[in-house]
C-alpha cells in the first residue's frame, strides 16, 4: 500500500456543523498511511465554510504519530492564514501526552469540549438575539419604568 492510500478500516473522518463550529470527527489511527485522509477532508473546508471556527474532535483517535501531528499543524496554519480559528477537542490521555511532549499544545488550543462559537467582534455567536428582549432598549439596558 502506498503512502496516502486511505485505509478505511483504520480511520474514519466525518465533517458536521455544530453550534457555530465546523467539526471534523476523527476515529481510529492517525499515522503516515491515514493522516492524508484527514487532510484531504479537512484542509479544503478551512476558510470556505460559513463559519470561521473549526474543531478536530479526537475522542475516537486510538493512536497518533508524527504524521497525525503534522496534519493538525498544517490545518492550524491554514486556519491562521485564512483568518480562522482551529482547535483540538476531546483528545484521549495518550494524545494529550503526545501534544504536550511535542509542544503542539502550545500552538494549537486543546479543549475537553466544544466551546461557544465566537464572532469576529468577540461576542458569543450561539444564541445571540437579533433584537433586544422585551423591556430592553437598544443598548441592552432595561427601559426606565414610567
Automatic annotation (TrEMBL):
Region (Disordered): 122-146
InterPro entries membership: Anti-sigma_ant, STAS_dom, STAS_dom_sf
PROSITE patterns recorded: STAS
GO molecular function: anti-sigma factor antagonist activity
Tree of life domain: Bacteria
Domain STAS: 11-121
UniProt-listed Gene3D superfamilies: STAS domain
Pfam families given in the database record: STAS
Homology family: Belongs to the anti-sigma-factor antagonist family.
Protein name, per record: Anti-sigma factor antagonist
Amino acid at each position: 500500500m502506498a503512502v496516502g492510500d486511505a485505509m478505511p478500516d483504520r480511520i474514519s473522518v466525518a465533517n458536521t456543523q455544530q453550534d457555530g463550529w465546523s467539526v471534523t470527527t476523527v476515529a481510529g489511527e492517525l499515522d503516515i498511511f491515514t493522516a492524508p485522509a484527514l487532510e484531504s477532508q479537512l484542509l479544503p473546508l478551512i476558510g470556505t465554510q460559513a463559519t470561521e471556527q473549526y474543531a478536530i474532535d479526537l475522542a475516537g483517535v486510538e493512536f497518533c504519530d508524527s504524521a497525525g501531528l503534522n496534519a493538525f499543524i498544517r490545518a492550524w496554519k491554514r486556519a491562521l492564514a485564512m483568518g480562522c480559528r482551529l482547535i483540538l477537542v476531546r483528545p484521549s490521555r495518550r494524545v494529550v501526552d503526545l501534544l504536550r511532549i511535542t509542544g503542539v499544545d502550545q500552538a494549537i488550543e486543546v479543549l475537553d469540549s466544544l466551546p461557544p462559537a465566537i464572532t469576529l467582534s468577540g461576542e458569543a455567536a450561539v444564541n445571540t438575539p437579533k433584537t433586544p428582549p422585551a423591556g430592553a432598549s437598544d443598548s441592552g439596558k432595561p427601559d426606565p419604568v414610567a
